[in-house]
Amino acid sequence: MPHRKGVSCPWLIPKHRRRTLEDIHTYLTPVEVYDLITRKEWQYKGGQFNKKGTQYGRDKYHSRDKALLALLYLTSGRINEVLRVKKNQFFEMEDIPYYKSPDENILILKDFFVSKRKKGKKNPILDLPLPRLGYLASFTELVEDYLRYLSPKKKLFKFGTSRGYVITNYITGKWNHYFRAQSLSFQVNLIGSAMRVAKQRGIANATTISHYYRGEWLVDKDKVLEGRNQEAKSGEYYQREYEKETVQKVSKSSSVEEEIDKILKSK
Fold this sequence. Notes:
Layout: H1 30-38, H2 54-75, H3 79-82, E1 90-92, E2 106-113, E3 125-131, H4 137-147, H5 161-172, H6 176-191, H7 194-201, H8 221-224, H9 228-266
Antiparallel strand pairs: 1-2, 2-3
Helix pairs in contact: 1-2, 2-4, 2-6
């Protein structure tokens, strides 16, 4: 970012043009995203921390920054949505009564507020699963590591969207919405349905994310060929059934004619 005259810390001023999906040339795997958000740390000074000590403060702030980036990716959320989150929104599945089959490998982010809606439309309030196993487990670990620094009702992040951009840009060289796009791309291709992802993420129109799907017909080849032995024989099967039915009708007709002949002869 170019220096501006008279500004001692130009990186604190997010002077940039509006980014679009055209600025994203590559969609990353979760491993690549994780490497991106953990490769660099802000060099926080010691004087801004409390009596718990400089190292404690640095560790907490570094953990906070990683949790911010992890949640942007895990939730597919906008920066203003993620900044609303409080510690008391995180639950084990077994602590939420309406989940009848709780799984200890999933942490629930409850009542996640989706902000963007047309005037007069209700904003979705979502339960979002944060997996402790699989592709996204390392991101959930970053979030849980930061939660231990906070008391129950505390907001996770005590800053606004501009500061959020600065942190994201400094650590990754990217912008906040970049991680929403990366997340939606991964979710759509993992689940294989833009409609289902839109429902799960509170997106009103599934067509706005359908372009993320990159699968070709070969991806579904096995599904197309499911039950292929039965289907391959179905034409022959129906032909045989037709012939059998025809033969039965003919046989039945012949039998009737024979019986009539017998009756006539008897007379």
